[in-house]
Amino acid sequence: MATSDQKISPELDTIHVGHATSVLATWADDLVDTIVTSPPYYKQRDYQGDEQIGLEKTPGEYVAALTDLFQEAYRVTKPSGSLWLVIGDKYDKGELLGMPWRVALALKDIGWRLRSDVIWHKPNAMPSSVKTRPTTDHEYIFFFTKSKEYHYDADAIREPHVTFSENSKMKGGRNHFHKRNSTPEAGKNSGDSNLHDGRWDQAFHPKGRNKRTVWSVSLSKFREAHFAVFPESIVETCIKATCPEDGIVLDPFLGSGTTAVVAKRLGRKYLGIDQSAEYTEMAQRRIDAASETTSSKQKTLEFD
Ligand SMILES: C[S@@+](CC[C@H](N)C(=O)[O-])C[C@H]1O[C@@H](n2cnc3c(N)ncnc32)[C@H](O)[C@@H]1O
User: What is the pTM of this model?
Assistant: First the structure.
């Protein structure tokens, strides 16, 4: 492992090949603003390569490998920074292993502060033939921060309010509204300062309600990749919420490069790592193609 005086600040917008724990061990402290990543799930797939995580013999060894990696990731994250970890579970001999929570609790033990457990609901999840339990159509997205104080832009990821229907049984219901779809600020209660406290703001904020913890997002495909890739909208939500506009996003399991593509599109810098040279080349091609599309769109706009 490199000593502290050998640590480097890697050039931004670059991809690194190798075991993420060893690569991160060479990097300086407090570099990145947010990490958005999805490790290989336990015993799910062979990504080819001697350095891959996911094929450990026991759940404990898998958790230990990820804990080592996220310990280095913690060190390279700024004090205001955060980690979004997308992770699914696994059945073994008919029993659910509880892998996401095993990993989440281990990361809490090394200092990461768990702020949310988000359920990623997949409306287009693979049907299954099981008849003795419900079909799984979700994964977890854990939101951790490095410190108590951290960068979080709630306004950037608000979602539409649920409007009460004419028949709503909810107490108060539509009586809050001057007319359908209007907010109290614009309606009969405008000017009443009592209505602008925290609770009211949550319920009727003009930019929408605070983001909820169930995100319904369909699985996406990327033609070149033989494994599940991130839906871009999930990465977008995470980056907008926790990476400042000039900030740096890290994905230590870059795969096909989704995190980097979205980071660039949102004007952030990226750092990516993957143990497979083949995947890093695929990711680089995808990032280059995406930036060409963005710059040709910008040129078209300039001429309009
Ligand atoms: C689930 S895929 C990530 C997919 C990615 N989110 C995307 O959108 O394409 C997991 C990736 O982790 C990589 N990987 C596995 N073990 C690793 C390790 N020890 N260090 C770095 N990368 C690793 C695999 O090669 C694979 O590309």
Answer: 0.88
